[in-house]
Model the fold of this input.
Amino acid sequence: MGLAYDALYARQSIEKKDSISVESQLEYCRYETHGGDYIEYADRGFSGKDMKRPGFERMMADIAEGKVRRVIVYKLDRISRSILDFANMMEVFRKYDVAFISSTEKFDTSTPIGRAMLNICIVFAQLERETIQKRVSDAYHARCRHGFYMGGRVPYGFRLKKTVIGQVRTSMYEEVEEEGRQVRLIYSMYADLSCSLGDIVRYLDDSRMEHLRGGNWNTARLGEMLRNPVYVRADVAVYRFFKSQGVKIWDPVSDFTGRYGCYLYKGVGAVGRNSLEGRELVLAPHEGLIPPEIWLACRRRCLDSRQPVRTGKAKNSWLAGKVRCGNCGYALAVRRSGTKWGRYFVCSGTDCGGTGCTVYADVLEEYMEGVVKEELASFSGVYPVDGRAVQRRDDEKEMRLVQIGEEIDALLVRVAEADEVLLRYINERIAGLEAEKCRVQEEMEAEDVAAAEREGRYMDFAGMWERVSFEDRRAVVEVLFKGICIADGRIEIMWRI
Done:
């Protein structure tokens, strides 16, 4: 073999009947050598989307050492389907004076026509690859929207079983009894605001409740489980929750009957790993494990993944630990003074200048009491004697309210392009829907009154605020607020719910 030889390169990502094998590709390439010296490089099972292929990398290393005079391939897309990657590769070829030949497309880079034809062909090779990717992606999303099982790890508490959906064979989940009991326990514990993920891990360890699939319980495993809608018995409240988070829901609200779980997919418009916005939700064919009210209580806690850290009990103000400086971000500590005001919040940051983030505790507490009472009023309702909320909801009425809201939104979208006749119809239709909405809401309020007389009593949480203890006020604040920022007389409230 001489100092330089021809490099014959072949690649095949998947062996299919309609694709040419590596051996056949190399046979075509051997003809172009005309009996000269050559060495063969091949990559089996590798895509042409990038250059990370062992055979290709070995060939490029030999080129850098000056061992190769020509690179011969069966077809252009066997070596690359990316314009950028191919351009970079051709720069290396030019640097080491290496010619490129495609045996079936009949061009080589030693001529101007060959170089021009090469650039045209690589454009269409990338177009073909992107078209294939789009087709595969569309097929994947279409299957997702029909509730088909799309592979991946089976969630804890379930196993796979064969099923048929719309005459298509697929799989679905069914409960594993012992694992399901553990899942229900974890959700019921986390729904209690006083119980953290760490508390649950310690309880499971102390009770010798082993993870039945191996490994140890930890907060990461629990967090993943508590965020997964595959466990919920999805009803109208779950539908509303995901809608409010910007999730695209493919099933109508009438299908959310409180029985089936959900699949949550990334979606083409997803905005981030920890955000629900832009994700896609579809009802699954399996029955959920967790009642919607418990699942929602846990999921809302997970929206703020940071667990509150308490270094001790606050004695000076029920707002202590929640108030921060809007200028530097440091916590505002409670101090006492000899003045008539007695207590005040002051920034604990050493680099914060001025007194713009200082406020008297009594003034802030009075303001926040009004805010808290207004929010608590929205939670007031019918409760039985044992303190649990009365389940009086009429699911059909709840669904109708959601449908009315969605229809009104759809009509408002059409206002901008409507002519006079269509605009009159839209206004009349919206007026009719608003009237129906008021009627449904009045009927539901009447059901509240009837439930109060039959099952329990009306609880006025705002009115009860004056009678609750210091520690209970702290607990309410913990539930309602992430934090309160104060700067230059302005107050910004960061809600948890």
Summary: The chain is about 40% helix and 20% strand. Residues 323-379+464-495 form one domain.
